Amino acid sequence: MGETAITIRAKTAPGATRKGVETRNRIIKGAREALEEGGMEALTTRRIAASADVKLATLHYYFESKESLLLAVLEDLIADMEEAYRQDVALPKAPEDRVEALIRASWRYIQRTRGKQIAQQELTLYALRTKGSEWLAARQYNAYIDFYGHLVFEDDRDEDLRRIGRAVARQMLIGIDGIILQSYALQDLSTSNDDIEALITAMRGYLRRLMVERDKGR
Amino acid sequence: MGETAITIRAKTAPGATRKGVETRNRIIKGAREALEEGGMEALTTRRIAASADVKLATLHYYFESKESLLLAVLEDLIADMEEAYRQDVALPKAPEDRVEALIRASWRYIQRTRGKQIAQQELTLYALRTKGSEWLAARQYNAYIDFYGHLVFEDDRDEDLRRIGRAVARQMLIGIDGIILQSYALQDLSTSNDDIEALITAMRGYLRRLMVERDKGR
DNA sequence: GTCTATAAAATGATAGAC
DNA sequence: GTCTATCATTTTATAGAC
User: Fold this and answer.
1) What would the pLDDT profile of A9-43 be if each residue is shown by its tens digit?
2) CB atoms A125 and B140 under 8 Å
3) Cα A17 vs. chain centroid, distance in angstroms?
């Protein structure tokens, strides 16, 4: 057998240059906004291109398919969350009060970002539907669990506290996801407010219970 | 002015005859199955027609648009729920035990009907996105709240009990919707089971608290 | 009421100039 | 890297025979 020359391809991949990265991000942002605005059903590549102020062919230069673009949008959402996690959030000292403050902050956010919240749920369902992309939905949730989990305790270097923080975070997320749908559907603010108070009470109780169990086990 | 002859149109509307109703229902069922199977993104009128074993033109004879068909599917889902409500469900006597049994039954159902649950959430989001159809999402939730609410107390003729049953039902629904997404995303059964136990404890506590408050107020 | 055939528009994607 | 122009399908929807 003769020798085989291996050629290293020097061709820059789409999005490698500075301007390339910029355009790629603009397309993702455009997709996000178009999705928040009109929902999944109306989300066409043409609309995305228009929203990103880019020609249709340019969109396809950066993303080989609509599917890969949508998954990139979800990844971008996750990155945003991880970014937000790095920022310090002003919270009370006592863990239970922190949980309460977190839920109240989330609730305020939910009330003024309807399109964004629905878009996020649509994308999550899309990932769950897209074969081979379920891991993305998992990553999204894990990012949220990390985020909320770290905020439960001011100092969670202790392994037990980390575990408890994550358990509480999962329950908070369950409650928040559930209330997003229900509050937008029922459109009854006073009822939703009651539900938020109930959620807060439940989460305080859950945290307290986990702490008691932990203290017993020492 | 002369007299105006008013002609009563005798033309039967689509779906008025016996066979018509049958076909219409078959189309709705076909749409439901196609949706559960492949998700919103892949849900085209052609696929629906094929799934219902009907020609494309027939579909359009019964539904003036894809949108009206999808909304009919959601209405059908609601009707199913109201039908299920009429059936008696075997439940324990004590309200708290009933709540626990309801959550466990829901959880078992969720685990074996992934496609159906995702389809339902996709449709709810679709209704929330479709201008003028938000009321459908509200009706869907109210049907569920009625359903769960009536099951909390064996006898809820008392107005306080009905109110409490509905409050608990709303919280249960929030938890169940939240856990649908999270359990499918995380794909971690032991974690989801923990979350279900936590939800049960929380709901028992909530019900107990509401009952105590009510007793104080007499 | 259901079908075949087809219209009319929209969609995801590519070729190739600049 | 971005554009214009265009392709190849696919999609929703309708006309009209049976």
Assistant:
1) 555 678 788 899 999 999 999 999 999 999 999 99
2) no
3) 27
The two structure tokens encoding residue A81: 């969350």
CB A184 within 8 A of CB A118: yes
Up-side HSE of residue B42: CA atoms within 13 Å toward CB? 17
CB of A46 within 7 Å of some strand C atom: yes
Please state whether the predicted TM-score (pTM) of the whole model is above 0.90: yes
Supply the CATH classification number for the domain B73-216. 1.10.357
A130 DSSP assignment? S
CA of B89, C1' of D12: distance in angstroms: 43
Task: Going residue by residue through chain B, which has 218 residues, state the pLDDT in tens, using 9 for 90 and above.
Answer: 556 665 544 556 787 788 999 999 999 999 999 999 999 999 999 999 999 999 999 999 999 999 999 999 999 999 988 887 777 678 899 999 999 999 999 999 999 999 999 999 999 999 999 999 999 999 999 999 999 999 999 999 999 999 999 999 999 999 999 999 999 999 999 999 999 999 999 999 999 999 999 999 87
Which residue do the tokens 């919280």 mark?
B171
Q: Do B121 and A126 touch (CB under 8 A)?
A: no
Q: Which CATH architecture has domain B12-64?
A: Orthogonal Bundle (1.10)
- A58 CB and strand C closer than 7 A: no
Q: How far is B102 from chain A (nearest CA, A)?
A: 17
Please judge whether A185 and B41 are an interchain contact, meaning their C-beta atoms are less than 8 angstroms apart: no
Q: Are the Cβ atoms of B170 and A185 closer than 8 angstroms?
A: no
Pairs of residues, one from chain A and one from chain B, whose beta carbons lie less than 8 Å apart: 132
Can you give the residue ranges of every domain in chain A?
11-64, 71-216
Q: Is the CB of B38 under 7 A from strand C?
A: no
CATH for A11-64 is 1.10.10.60
Is B39 (CB) below 7 Å from strand D?
no
Measured distance CA(A88)–CA(A81) in Å, rounded: 13
Residue A3, both tokens: 């020798």
